[in-house]
């Protein structure tokens, strides 16, 4: 064990390579808070989280003004205690996205530091449940794309070995969504998975209506159909359809996932390490879902979720949306449509610090 000697805070903004649209928003840029924690022995752990274009500067202020100073002099290996102390320090701003994003950047850095000191890759340190995880892609399914391009992208993904593709839904009329999904299903056949994502765009009656129209297409899941804080609406939807209902990217606490699972309001958990507050609560959600026999299919951040998916037994899919390759020396390893976690100690992300330096908008140091 070694005490924390310094904490460095950076903000790096990454631009999407393709236009990304859904039923309620457009992905403007990935504001990326990066936290580097160095202990008294000189070992450094690096963590990060993200926004989709707004709030990044607020996360940085929360880190600089309220969270990072509390880490100095603490034992870096006391991750659970540190997480709870930091959470209660800013308890008045929880449960919420900005606080969870800030906590996630710190918590992932602490886990990276622990894994590096132990000489273990994250997927083994956190559980070591499996060697790889199947991939589905979201990059060719954005809402603005015409059916012909959706089909083209899905066929390319299938040829590359991916097991499925996510298609965004939420066009003005249900018939448009059905036409888009039907075109893809006709092209890829019955033995390839199609996921859908409404990004909280529907009311309960409209979600029930669309689910009924989607059922003949044998979809893998219907993601975030209704506003994420309405557990009972999701429960009523789940009772009204044979489609699996997926939630998680807009939930920020263990208790929120507990409410969904206890209410039988979802059948797939999409817990996001950057939204739940880091690896510490992510693992708790995954194991809680396992107790309910519910699979975990995390949202976004594939570069860190690949290790977490391989740490737990109930992971089913990893979402493919590349974003860190512009600031890393190499990307995630993929073979035959499956993602393989790095065997290097730590999170397994090979940061390119020269490129990060050129894209850094904010840098501060504590200690």
From TrEMBL:
- Keywords for this protein: Lyase, Magnesium, Metal-binding
SUPFAM superfamilies for this protein: Enolase C-terminal domain-like (SSF51604), Enolase N-terminal domain-like (SSF54826)
| The name this protein goes by in its record | L-talarate/galactarate dehydratase
| Organism for this UniProt entry | Achromobacter insuavis
Q: Which Pfam families match?
A: MR_MLE_C (PF13378), MR_MLE_N (PF02746)
Domain of life the protein comes from: Bacteria
Matches recorded under CDD domains:
MR_like
Lyase among the record's keywords? yes
- Domain Mandelate racemase/muconate lactonizing enzyme C-terminal residues, every copy: 147-244
**What Enzyme Commission number(s) does the record list for this chain?**
4.2.1.156
Task: Tell me the cofactors it needs.
Answer: Mg(2+)
Q: Name one GO biological process term.
A: carbohydrate catabolic process
One GO molecular function term? hydro-lyase activity
